[in-house]
Specification:
37% helix, TIM Barrel, Metal-dep_hydrolase_composite, disordered C terminus, signal, alpha/beta, Urease, subunit C, domain 1, seven-stranded parallel beta sheet, 21 strands
């Protein structure tokens, strides 16, 4: 069976077993030769030959090749996707439920934005294996004593229950921020997450039904950001409204989680979520990244009119941020999903297809892991890629059906025997192929035969003489 057909067959098996008990496994690092390849470079499809050795792309053919594929200019390679906002891999239970789903959907990089140190410590060893997604964990998630997400995580959302839990850090003022900073530092991590929710409406704090759904005061968020930056940490802020967006910018955060208008839990006018041109310009000036999370809107089961109004605000916000040059990152905040949900949500909103793919495969992974060469096919880049059956710029659904998943040169598969045997068959590309010996012509054969017969007769005669 030709190698490419074998790969397609294996891919079909892997897809059919997506929910089977067998987890993804990684082969040994392989050397690859990908002839007549096409790949997405962030803007368009490029063509040529690609080579992989020691987990990275290289400029020349390796001396020995484990996997040689002729893609014949039909299939397309893209870098793996990244998820900048989720919570489903920050506990051991969630990891068991969803880690393989990430690999299955081609999402190799992720950020979990509200884990607690104990839970993340359990997940850490699981995330450190070759067949696992690479994850950045936030272990300091900070809100007000009546703030989000307390209503979602507490069995009984009361002040007493909030004070007793340890998942979320509760801070009520700039003074408390300074007092609690040593404890926040002790939670570790390079990032901390702040919650701003309806910060422009202090009167909501007096309403019992709003308990667990609010967030930090703007001055408290600003002080926490100052402390974090002084300590070399970065800050991502959860926001709900355009006013929260403004408060996050005023605080000086590094990233904003949620495009305002991803939800409308208080049935407010749609204009409450519209980002101003001034705010967009400020975000661009401060290089504040915005994590989109438009896929999460579908979780709120809005009626058609309310959904249409939010989608229009989202389109306008995206256009305004893009026009200003604000860096966008792809994140879904869909607990049962991955960045693939957001990929399609942004496509449905009309975002340029090449931009959508670039956010997923280049901008977001590089933002999550800035010290690594990700999202590229140049020599020295990590050799992590998905093989698609066709061009995703023409048909985005191709991303939903990877034929092959490769991470740092390792083949990822649910078939244990394939993972174990992948490096055994090798082919040399260094040695020149041996040329077959030329066939002798008929006349030459006759001469050769005659000489051989004469020599044979002479030898026999000599032998008889000696015998006498």
């Amino acid at each position: 069976m030709p190698l490419f057909r074998l790969v397609v067959a294996l891919a079909a098996c892997c897809t059919a077993l997506a929910h089977a008990a067998q987890p993804y496994q990684a082969s040994a690092p392989l050397s690859w030769e990908l002839k007549n390849a096409r790949w997405f470079d962030g803007r368009q499809i490029q063509r040529g030959n690609l080579y992989v050795e020691d987990g990275v792309f290289v400029a020349k053919k390796p001396a020995k090749v484990n996997r040689k594929m002729d893609l014949r200019g039909q299939q397309v390679l893209i870098n793996p996707l990244a998820e900048a906002h989720n919570h489903n891999l920050q506990t051991a239970w969630g990891w068991g439920q969803y880690a393989d789903k990430y690999i299955d959907e081609g999402v190799f990089y992720a950020a979990m934005l509200c884990g607690d140190p104990a839970g993340v410590a359990e997940v850490g060893p699981l995330a450190a294996t070759p067949a696992a997604p690479d994850v950045s964990f936030v272990t300091a998630c900070i809100t007000s004593p009546d703030g989000y997400p307390l209503a979602a995580v507490l069995p009984e959302p009361t002040p007493a229950a909030a004070a007793a839990q340890s998942l979320i850090v509760l801070v009520d003022s700039p003074e408390q921020a300074r007092e609690q900073w040593p404890a926040i530092q002790a939670r570790g991590g390079r990032w901390l997450r702040l919650v701003l929710a309806h910060s422009e409406r202090p009167e909501l704090r007096q309403q019992p039904e709003m308990f667990g759904r609010l967030g930090l005061r703007p001055d408290t968020a600003a002080e926490l950001t100052r402390l974090a930056h002084a300590d070399g940490k970065r800050v991502v802020a959860h926001v709900e409204t355009a006013a929260d967006f403004d408060a996050a910018l005023a605080a000086g955060v590094d990233a904003i989680a949620h495009l305002p208008g991803y939800a409308n839990t208080l049935n407010e006018p749609a204009e409450q979520f519209a980002i101003s041109e001034t705010a967009a310009a400020q975000a661009a000036r401060q290089k504040t990244a915005v994590i989109t999370t438009t896929a999460a809107t579908a979780l709120f089961k809005l009626d058609d009119a309310a959904l249409a109004a939010l989608r229009e605000v989202q389109r306008a916000n995206l256009a305004r941020l893009q026009a200003a040059g604000v860096p966008l990152l792809m994140g879904s905040d869909v607990f049962i999903g991955t960045a693939r949900n957001e990929l399609h949500a942004l496509d449905d909103l009309g975002l340029d297809r090449a931009t959508v793919l670039r956010l997923a495969t280049q901008d977001t992974p590089r933002a999550l892991f800035p010290g690594r060469r990700l999202g590229c096919f140049d020599p020295g880049c990590e050799a992590s890629f998905l093989l698609l059956g066709g061009d995703p710029l023409a048909d985005l659904s191709q991303v939903d059906m990877p034929l092959l998943r490769v991470k740092q040169g390792r083949l990822l598969t649910r078939l244990a025997d394939v993972a174990a045997s992948s490096s055994q068959a090798t082919a040399s590309t260094a040695d020149a192929p041996k040329k077959p010996a030329p066939k002798a012509k008929g006349k030459t054969k006759a001469k050769s035969t005659g000489k051989s017969a004469a020599a044979s007769s002479k030898t026999k005669a000599t032998a008889k003489a000696k015998a006498r």
